[in-house]
Write a structure and sequence with these properties.
The complex is a heterodimer.
Chain A: H1 4-36, H2 46-51, H3 54-60, H4 79-96, H5 101-104, H6 112-143, H7 145-158, H8 163-176, H9 185-213, H10 218-226, H11 231-269, H12 274-283, H13 287-318
Helix pairs in contact in A: 1-3, 4-13, 6-7, 6-9, 6-11, 6-12, 8-9, 8-11, 9-11, 11-12, 11-13, 12-13
Chain B: E1 2-15, E2 18-31, E3 35-39, H1 46-53, E4 61-66, H2 71-76, E5 80-83, H3 95-105, H4 110-123, H5 139-151, E6 157-161, H6 169-186, E7 189-194, H7 197-203, E8 206-211, E9 216-222, H8 237-255
Parallel strand pairs in B: 3-7, 3-8, 5-6, 6-7
Antiparallel strand pairs in B: 1-2, 1-4, 8-9
Helix pairs in contact in B: 3-4, 3-5, 4-5, 7-8
The chains are: A mainly alpha, B alpha/beta.
C-alpha cells in the first residue's frame, strides 16, 4: 500500500501533464473549428492568429477550448483518444472487424496485434543473432589480446553511427543479395530487420560479457592454475558461470535495443510491423495511430524486459544464488 | 627424504620504483611428512615462497625442486593441493560440486568423484553438507570445505596460505586442532603460511622465521613438541619457550634494518 501511492502519483502526474499539454498543442485547430461553428475568437483574423503564440491564444480564448481533447486529427491526441484507438486497433479490429481473426480466421493486417507480432518476431530473431554474436566476440576478446585489439575498436565505432542512417543501407545491401532465392520466405523477409536489431543488441551483450568473463579474481584464476586447468576449462568452469549475472543485466538492455532496431528497420521496409504503422501514421497525419503504435511498442518492450527478468530469476535461483 | 628443496632462491620483482627483492638467498629442505610453518611480518616473502613452490611465481635465481621436479612440472603433475586465504568456493556450485571441481578437471570417473567427495567431507567433518551452497555455511565451514577441495585429489603436499587468517580465534583454535588430526591421519607434507605465533608453534614440526627487505629466512626452529598435541599444550613450558624463540627471531629480523 505504501508503495502504491507514489507509483500512482507518478502515473497521475504523467496523465495530468499530457492532458494539459493537449490544450496549447491543439489550440489553433480547436479555435478554427470553434470559429466555423460561430464563436468569437480573439484575434479574429486567421493571419494574426498564425503569428500569435500558442499560450497567448489559450489565455485569450479560454471559453472555446472544449474541443482540445476530442479533435479528430489532433497534433497531440489526449490519452483517452489513444486508449480508444489502441482498443479499436486490437480487440475491436480482431473481434468485431470484418478482417479480424474471429470472422476471417487470420489476424487483420490493420490490427496492432498483427503488427506487434511482425515486430516481435524480428526483435526476437535479431536478439538471438545479437546475443550470440556478443557472447562469441566476448569469449574471443577475453581469450586473445590480439582479438581484443582488432575487434573492440570496431565494435565501439559501430555504435557511434546513428542506426537511422545505417538502416536503409543495410536493407538495400541485404535485398540486393537476393536472399529470398535461397532462404525460406519467412526468414528472408525477417532477416534485414533482424540484422539491424542484432546490430543494436550485440554491443551491450559484448560489453557486459567481457566484464563478466573478467570478473573472477586473481585467486580464483590461481586456483584453476594449481589444478593445471586448460584455458578452455577456465572458460567453461569459471569464467562462463561467473559471467551469468552480468549477461542478464546486458540482455535486458539488449532486448530493448533489439526492439528499437526492429522498429527502425521497419520504417524503410514498409512490410508491416509497429514501425511501418508509425510511418504510415505520419504520412496520413494520423497522430492517434502513431501514438497507439508507440504505446504498443512500449508495452511490448516492457513485456520483453519483464520476461527477461523472470528468466534471470529462474536461472540464478537454479545456480544457487541466495534468493 | 626431501620433498621440497630450495637452494639460494632469489625472486626479484621489477617495479616502477626499482627492483623489489621478494626473496633473497632462501635455502630450505622440507622432508616428507613435515608440517612446516612460515612466519614473518608482511613483505617477508612467506606467501611468495609458497607460490614459488606451487609454480605460481617463477624464481629469478637459485634452484627449487618439488618431488624432484621443477615446480611447474610438479604443478602439471598435480603434486599439491593449495588452500588460499579466502575459501574461494564457487557460489554457483554446491559444496559437493565445489569439491568435484578439481576432480572434473583431472578427469576422475563419476563414481570415483562421488566417493572422494564423501571421504574428504568426512575428513573435514562436513558430512551432510554436500548439497548446501557456500552461502549457507559459516566462514569456518567454508574454509574447511576449501581444504576438502584441496585434499580431494589426494596430492601428497598441502600448501596453505594463511587459511585461517580471516577467522575468529575460537573457530581458528578448533580448525587448528582438526588440521593436526587430519595431518596425522593423512601423513601429508604441509607448508603453512601464518602470521600468528601460537598457531605456528601449535601446528608445526618446523617453524621457518622470515624477515623482509629482502625477504629471507632468519631462523628455522625444529619443534620438540610431541606429534600428539592437545589444545592445552599451549600452556606448557616447552610451548612458551618455542614461542619465545620465534618472537626473538622476528624481532632480530626487524633490528637488522
Amino acid at each position: 500500500m505504501r508503495r502504491l501511492v507514489p507509483v500512482l502519483t507518478v502515473v497521475l502526474a504523467i496523465f495530468a501533464i499530457w492532458y494539459v499539454a493537449c490544450v496549447p498543442m491543439n489550440v489553433r485547430e480547436v479555435l478554427t473549428q470553434a470559429e466555423r461553428a460561430g464563436a468569437e475568437i480573439v484575434p479574429a483574423a486567421a493571419a494574426e492568429r498564425r503569428d500569435a503564440g500558442a499560450l497567448g491564444l489559450v489565455l485569450r480564448n479560454t471559453a472555446h477550448l472544449g474541443a482540445s481533447w476530442s479533435m479528430e486529427r489532433a497534433k497531440l491526441p489526449a490519452p483517452h483518444q489513444v486508449a480508444v484507438e489502441l482498443w479499436d486497433s486490437t480487440v475491436g479490429e480482431e473481434v468485431y472487424g470484418r478482417r479480424g481473426i474471429v470472422r476471417s480466421g487470420t489476424l487483420s493486417n490493420r490490427s496492432l496485434i498483427y503488427h506487434g507480432g511482425v515486430t516481435l518476431s524480428a526483435t526476437l530473431f535479431g536478439f538471438l543473432i545479437g546475443t550470440a554474436a556478443g557472447v562469441l566476440l566476448a569469449i574471443g576478446i577475453v581469450q586473445s589480446r590480439t582479438m581484443e585489439m582488432s575487434v573492440m575498436p570496431w565494435a565501439i565505432v559501430s555504435q557511434t553511427i546513428p542506426i537511422i542512417a545505417l538502416a536503409p543501407m543495410i536493407i538495400v545491401v541485404l535485398y540486393s543479395l537476393g536472399l529470398d532465392r535461397f532462404l525460406p520466405e519467412g526468414i528472408a523477409g525477417l532477416l534485414p530487420k533482424a540484422v539491424i536489431s542484432a546490430y543494436l543488441s550485440f554491443f551491450p551483450v559484448l560489453v557486459g560479457m567481457v566484464k563478466g568473463l573478467r570478473s573472477p579474481d586473481q585467486m580464483q584464476l590461481d586456483l584453476m592454475q594449481t589444478y593445471n586447468a586448460s584455458r578452455g576449462e577456465v572458460m567453461r568452469k569459471l569464467r562462463l558461470p561467473a559471467s551469468v549475472p552480468y549477461l542478464f543485466a546486458s540482455l535486458k538492455v539488449g532486448i530493448a535495443a533489439s526492439l528499437v532496431g526492429a522498429i527502425v528497420g521497419e520504417l524503410p521496409v514498409q512490410r508491416g510491423g509497429l514501425g511501418a504503422r508509425m510511418l504510415a501514421g505520419t504520412y496520413y497525419g494520423q497522430t492517434t495511430q502513431i501514438w497507439a503504435a508507440l504505446i504498443a511498442a512500449a508495452l511490448l518492450a516492457a513485456l520483453l524486459v519483464f520476461a527477461m527478468g523472470w528468466i534471470e530469476r529462474r536461472t540464478l535461483r537454479s545456480m544457487g544464488v541466495q534468493a | 627424504m626431501s620433498v621440497i628443496s630450495a637452494n639460494a632462491l632469489d625472486l626479484t620483482f621489477e617495479t616502477n620504483d626499482g627492483p623489489v627483492h621478494a626473496l633473497k638467498g632462501v635455502s630450505l629442505d622440507i622432508n616428507k611428512g613435515d608440517f612446516v610453518s612460515f612466519i614473518g611480518p608482511s613483505g617477508c616473502g612467506k606467501t611468495t615462497f609458497l607460490r614459488c613452490i606451487a609454480g605460481l611465481e617463477t624464481p629469478t635465481g637459485g634452484t627449487l625442486t618439488v618431488n624432484g621436479m621443477s615446480p611447474d612440472e610438479a604443478r602439471q603433475a598435480r603434486a599439491y593441493g593449495y588452500v588460499f586465504q579466502a575459501a574461494g568456493l564457487y557460489p554457483w556450485r554446491t559444496i559437493g560440486q565445489n569439491i568435484k571441481l578439481p576432480l572434473e578437471i583431472m578427469q576422475f570417473g563419476r563414481n570415483e568423484q562421488n566417493q572422494r567427495v564423501k571421504s574428504v567431507l568426512e575428513l573435514v567433518e562436513l558430512s551432510g553438507f554436500e548439497n548446501k551452497y557456500p552461502w549457507q555455511l559459516s566462514g569456518g565451514m567454508q574454509q574447511r570445505a576449501s581444504i576438502a577441495r584441496a585434499l580431494a585429489f589426494d596430492a601428497d603436499i598441502l600448501l596453505m596460505d594463511e587459511p585461517f587468517g580471516a577467522l575468529d580465534e575460537i573457530v581458528r583454535d578448533h580448525l587448528n586442532e582438526q588440521l593436526l588430526a587430519l595431518w596425522a591421519r593423512t601423513e601429508k607434507t604441509i607448508g603453512f603460511v601464518t602470521h600468528s605465533i601460537p598457531e605456528a608453534v601449535y601446528l608445526s614440526t618446523h617453524i621457518v622465521v622470515m624477515s623482509p627487505r629482502p625477504g629471507r629466512i632468519t631462523d628455522v626452529i625444529e619443534s620438540p613438541l610431541p606429534k600428539e598435541r592437545p589444545l592445552d599444550i599451549r600452556d606448557s613450558q616447552e610451548f612458551i619457550e618455542i614461542a619465545h624463540r620465534v618472537r626473538e627471531g622476528l624481532r632480530a629480523g626487524h633490528l637488522d634494518e
